[in-house]
């Protein structure tokens, strides 16, 4: 029988009871129809998975869980990958984030490029970031991960605060294939994916000035929501935990 997994921001410890916040509680009680006595797994990003039993549900989306066991779970890739993804339209961005999390990325940086068709500002940007973070949480619940990648607020590509790691960007005109890059160090990789229509020549030149190397991913041109997951899968196969 499949064990239900749920993410919480609450501190967890074996031998104590925790009252989950309204979001996870609502999902457990209203959507998954969980009741007192049902067992589940809970995680909060500390690297462990906690198993427990629901002890109470009530009005106001209340759900309490008695934590009975803590297990160390080794499902995180040894290859840190930060995905810098040009914001895509509608469900395509959700797809990018969901699959990137399932494939093991450690962080996601949405960016606006010259050819990005979606523009978000103020409260709309905040709301969209919150939605994307929940997509990441759900992907980790499904895939068995115990650490949730952070989805940063969307910014212009040229305003990006670069994380640590060797910088790569997909470029169908690049001479070097992705499979022939040098093995990364402990800081891993930062992978930039352009929008539908691709990065402009000016953006490619700017990335190169930021010490980002262009790499090609096969002879075919991929959609933006396909390129990221495909490249991440290839990198995990060569350098990560798919070897």
TrEMBL record:
GO molecular function, one term: rRNA (uridine-N3-)-methyltransferase activity
Catalyzed chemical reaction(s): uridine(1498) in 16S rRNA + S-adenosyl-L-methionine = N(3)-methyluridine(1498) in 16S rRNA + S-adenosyl-L-homocysteine + H(+)
CDD domains for this protein: RsmE-like
One BP annotation, GO: rRNA base methylation
Aminoacyl-tRNA synthetase in keyword set: no
GO cellular component: cytoplasm
InterPro entries assigned to the protein according to its UniProt record, in alphabetical order: Alpha/beta_knot_MTases, PUA-like_sf, RsmE, RsmE_MTase_dom, RsmE_PUA-like, tRNA_m1G_MTases_N
Pfam families xref list: Methyltrans_RNA (PF04452), PUA_4 (PF20260)
Main subcellular localisation: cytoplasm
UniProt key word Aminoacyl-tRNA synthetase: no
Entry-linked SUPFAM superfamilies: alpha/beta knot, PUA domain-like
Domain Ribosomal RNA small subunit methyltransferase E PUA-like: 26-59
Superkingdom of origin: Bacteria
Subcellular localization: Cytoplasm
Enzyme Commission number: 2.1.1.193
Keyword tags: Cytoplasm, Methyltransferase, rRNA processing, S-adenosyl-L-methionine, Transferase
Signal peptide, first to last residue: none
Domain Ribosomal RNA small subunit methyltransferase E methyltransferase: 76-236
Family: Belongs to the RNA methyltransferase RsmE family.
Chain's role: Specifically methylates the N3 position of the uracil ring of uridine 1498 (m3U1498) in 16S rRNA. Acts on the fully assembled 30S ribosomal subunit.
Name listed for the protein in its UniProt record: Ribosomal RNA small subunit methyltransferase E
């Amino acid at each position: 029988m499949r064990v239900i997994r749920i993410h919480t921001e609450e501190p967890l410890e074996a031998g104590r009871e925790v009252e989950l916040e309204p979001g996870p509680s609502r999902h457990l009680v209203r959507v998954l129809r969980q009741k007192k006595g049902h067992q589940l797994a809970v995680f909060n990003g500390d690297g462990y998975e906690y198993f427990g039993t629901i002890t109470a549900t009530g009005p106001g989306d209340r759900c309490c869980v008695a934590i009975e066991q803590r297990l160390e779970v080794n499902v995180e890739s040894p290859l840190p990958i930060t995905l810098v993804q040009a914001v895509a339209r509608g469900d395509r961005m959700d797809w990018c984030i969901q699959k990137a999390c399932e494939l093991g990325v450690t962080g996601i940086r949405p960016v606006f490029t010259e050819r990005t068709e979606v523009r978000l500002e103020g409260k709309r940007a905040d709301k969209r970031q919150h939605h994307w973070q929940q997509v990441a949480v759900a992907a980790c619940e499904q895939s068995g991960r115990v650490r949730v990648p952070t989805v940063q607020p969307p910014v212009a590509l040229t305003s990006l605060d670069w994380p640590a790691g060797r910088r790569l960007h997909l470029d169908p005109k690049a001479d070097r294939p992705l499979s022939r890059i040098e093995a990364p160090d402990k800081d891993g990789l930062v992978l930039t994916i352009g929008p539908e229509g691709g990065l402009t020549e000016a953006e490619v030149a700017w990335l190169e000035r930021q010490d980002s190397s262009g790499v090609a991913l096969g002879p075919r041109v991929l959609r933006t929501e396909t390129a990221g997951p495909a490249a991440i899968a290839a990198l995990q196969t060569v350098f990560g935990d798919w070897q």
